[in-house]
Design goal:
The chain has 279 residues and is an alpha/beta fold. The chain has helices at residues 7-19, 35-43, 65-70, 75-85, 96-99, 118-121, 125-140, 152-164, 194-200, 202-215, 220-233, and strands spanning 2-4, 24-29, 50-55, 90-92, 144-148, 170-174, 237-245, 259-267, 270-277.
């Protein structure tokens, strides 16, 4: 595995790969890697002959400067973890000048799946996500990119962008990876104190209980209210808890196939998100 820090070096390698007919797979990340990221890398088996993992903590998708500063970082550990897999050809870890050079003034503005859930809660977040993901698509010239369903709204935004802008890349969704106690793997989990980590287990458990109630025919409004109350009693600040369509993210009143529960809730200043399919 080669660590690449500049656009120029990346372009030289990718150009040679394209001449040789290689299929390029991409896993964009913000680092602080865990098993969920490695699952994305492995999901490219049989779909790509070359694999690039990118690490860049993207400042323009944070609407809270403190959250950006506190986001966990550790390039040396991430590099060692990826090297151990034997699957990654390039770790691309550019600094900000390689992504947003002096005078940078162009951003992608998204709508539709952006204007709800995390988009409503974090103004400008998905504009920043779409901008950086598009730039990484262009710089790596990837044929296929893997994204986790844990950030399901992000996945929808990226799919919409690829369709709307006719980008020549395939988006590969990968199911959420969870701990033994069902907490969704996330880099932000590393910021939880031991007590908060124990509290955090109430989040997936509450969602699973809510799904059970929905499937048993309990009205969505009642099930969601009870779930939200359970989370509040467990010490969470609930930002949203909603039942929505998997395809459009439109709100739905009845649990059925192709619907999901979506939640964002905080422990202290640490914001956790999760979602679970009804089917």
């Amino acid at each position: 595995m080669k660590l690449v820090r500049t656009r120029q070096e990346l372009a030289e390698i990718v150009t040679q790969w394209q001449r040789e007919g290689e299929a390029i797979g991409l896993v964009p990340t913000m680092g602080s890697l865990h098993e969920g990221h490695l699952t994305l890398v492995r999901a490219l088996d049989g779909k790509a002959t070359r694999r690039i993992v990118t690490i860049f903590v993207n400042p323009i998708q944070f609407n809270n400067p403190d959250d950006f500063q506190l986001y966990p970082r550790g390039l040396d550990g991430d590099e060692a973890l990826l090297a151990q897999t034997g699957l990654v050809d390039i770790l691309y870890a550019p600094d900000e000048t390689q992504i947003y050079p002096p005078g940078f003034s162009t951003r992608i503005s998204v709508s539709g799946p952006d204007r709800m859930l995390c988009g409503a809660d974090r103004p400008g977040h998905f504009d920043g996500v779409a901008t950086i993901v598009n730039k990484l698509f262009m710089q790596t010239r990837a044929d296929i990119a893997a994204f986790g369903e844990k950030d399901y709204q992000q996945l929808c935004v990226i799919r919409r962008m690829v369709t709307d802008l006719d980008l020549p890349i395939t988006i590969l969704p990968v199911p959420t990876v969870r701990e033994a106690d069902h907490l969704a793997l996330s880099s932000r989990n590393k910021r939880l104190t031991p007590a908060q980590r124990e509290q955090a287990t109430h989040l997936p458990q509450a969602l699973m209980n809510c799904l059970t109630a929905l499937k048993a025919g309990k009205p969505a409004s009642v099930s969601l209210e009870q779930c939200a109350q359970t989370l509040k009693e467990a010490g969470f600040t609930v930002h949203y808890l909603e039942l929505r369509s998997e395809k459009s993210l439109a709100p739905v009143q009845k649990a059925k196939a192709n619907t999901r529960l979506f939640v964002a809730a905080s422990l202290g200043d640490i914001r956790l998100i999760d979602n679970m399919p009804v089917a």
